[in-house]
Amino acid sequence: MNKADLRKKYRELRLQLPQETIEEESLLIANNSLRLPVWDKTNYHIFLPITENKEINTEYLMHILQGKDKNIIISSTDFETRSMHHFLLTDNTVIKKNAWNIPEPVGGISVLPDAIEVVFIPLLAFDEKGNRIGYGKGFYDQFLSECPKEVIKIGLSLFEAVSHINDVFETDIPLDYCITPKQTYTF
User: Fold this and answer.
1) What are the chain's domains?
2) What pLDDT was estimated at residue 12?
């Protein structure tokens, strides 16, 4: 299937899920993350979920990161430049939803992409080769291109892999891993 069809299909499937299922599956994903060989790093970027879009609740994963005394980095988005600005999550960080219901930090301690070692990536679907589909605006491809080449890219998905995405572009940055409630894929 192509990206547009997969995006539509998985967006609809996710919106049909009850919130209780989202919570249960999010906890399973967080627990599955513990099996990855990525816990020797310091700086972890994570997304704050758009609850209206029934995205994975990353709170469970953030608890793991906090328990392991890791630096948690979150972003704000600039829709005019299609870029992201990254901030260290602290006890003093103020979070506010933007016009698209994305929870974002309101300022704080800035972190440059070259300091980020692991990125947890939201997505709608992914394939068996690690190609991913988000909302189609290119924010994460732009952000990942600014990170070190060795940054570890981990997708988080409520659904299992599709066999193939037809229209992958050269600028699309594939995943290293993808965690689902049932299993973890390595690419």
Assistant:
1) 3-186 (3.40.50.10420)
2) 97
